[in-house]
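Now read this:
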Amino acid sequence: MPATSTPSQRPRSGPRRDEAARLAVLHAADDLLVEHGFAALTVEAIARRAGVAKQTIYRWWPSKVEILLDTLIEDTGKRLAVPTETPTAESIRDYLRAFARFVSRDPAGKVMLALIAQAQHDPGTAKSFHERYLGPRRVLERDLLVRAIDAGAISPRLSPDATIDALVGPIVYRALTGSPIPRGLVDTLVADLLAPRSN
């Protein structure tokens, strides 16, 4: 799925960034990734689209991967927050539906999928992706499941970590292969894996 831990922020190495320039860089990276894909995305192109100097970008981000991670962390914080209210099977299902929409329709979801793909053959990307995004988010999602278990709302057949993988894995796989994600898929996963208890 696609933590109360906060996603790791990359340490700064120079003067404080101008906020308008920072946002312009993040938005430019997001847009260019959707338009041209990860392989064609360059720091030079991001600088041109954002209207900033290439040197300015390198002063704050060592690579395009770190720019995309900042974009992903910021956008998921706004558009795919892990529920903090008392969880139920229905609220977990709604979160998973939102996750399915995010990875299949949202530009930031395309960033997530690109980083997952890049992490398969780039150990540096994999390390940063896990440390800054996947790990902290899993903490939040595991806490969501544990709170639902403690409240008696669900009775998973697997451990919390295995349950997260089983719920999210099919959604991510379909998104990575460009397949549609039917609404019934999420409903079936929740029903089969969480075994919500009847009142």
In short: Residues 3-8, 11-15 have pLDDT under 50 and may be disordered. The chain is about 70% helix and 0% strand.
